[in-house]
């Protein structure tokens, strides 16, 4: 039984397949009678230290649709923001709540809540991982192709970001090839590249065009994530050759699909032309956050 979602490593291939199947059922059945309500009578805390649109709304709606009560907690307005330890917070909130969804900076905070608490913990984003998004991305790919094995995803930009980390892990688990096009300054974490998580494989190149070759899907993300604003000018200069424009898109397969976890900084990591092209599935991808978040909660509260 899966207790938490902290990094994505909690799921093996069988659990991933079940998660995708559950997501598909929840999506097709949304609004119809007889939908699962595993959160009936349960209160789920949502601790947010970072601003959010899609994550907050999709989790709040998802918790409500599963019968639960979402309770939003701005971390800066809790005692966590005034120095209370994660251990004390976990013990106290476990007495009040039935689960916690947390979006914060430090991965250690998420791990600490799971270690010292007694309720399910969901990592809704840290500086290190974004597993909910990566699983929603896999579902979006499966929805388009009817499979995951053997497909290739290219990723352009910051290869050391939380999205790159989580997509490396997810694609390995799914049996996909994941090729990161990133400069030396933002090379992917070697430890994750080397980790044996499944049949898929991960490669890294500093040549963005080479990364794009034969890609079924291409992924990009903002160049300046929350918490890295002081590095903005340097990052923009280094990552400029990795911008996803129509010329870059031409190095991939003719039917390549474009993905972005949003928000997008149009004109920086991706152009308007690409975002609005027939290749773009970014808004389908965004919608699937809701259905995947519900599936994750169903899995943890089954």
Note down, in words, how this protein is organized.
- By secondary structure, the chain is α/β, with parallel strands linked by helices.
- The protein has 2 domains: 13-129 and 288-300, 3-Layer(aba) Sandwich (Rossmann fold), CATH 3.40.50; 133-285, Rossmann fold (3-Layer(aba) Sandwich), CATH 3.40.50.
- 41% of the residues lie in helices and 14% in strands.
- It has helices spanning 13-29, 54-65, 86-96, 107-116, 131-145, 162-174, 190-194, 208-212, 232-239, 246-249, 272-275, 282-300; strands at 43-48, 69-74, 99-103, 121-123, 152-156, 177-181, 201-205, 217-220, 257-260.
- The strands form 2 sheets. It has a 5-stranded parallel beta sheet.
- Helix 1 (13-29) crosses helix 5 (131-145) and helix 5 (131-145) crosses helix 6 (162-174).
- It is globular, with a radius of gyration of 19 Å.
- The model has no long low-confidence stretch (mean pLDDT 96).
Write the layout of secondary structure elements.
Blueprint: H1 13-29, E1 43-48, H2 54-65, E2 69-74, H3 86-96, E3 99-103, H4 107-116, E4 121-123, H5 131-145, E5 152-156, H6 162-174, E6 177-181, H7 190-194, E7 201-205, H8 208-212, E8 217-220, H9 232-239, H10 246-249, E9 257-260, H11 272-275, H12 282-300
Parallel strand pairs: 1-2, 1-3, 3-4, 5-6, 5-8, 6-7, 8-9
Summarize it:
41% of the residues lie in helices and 14% in strands. By secondary structure, the protein is α/β, with parallel strands linked by helices. It has a 5-stranded parallel beta sheet with strand order 7-6-5-8-9. A 4-stranded parallel beta sheet has the order 2-1-3-4, with helices on both faces.
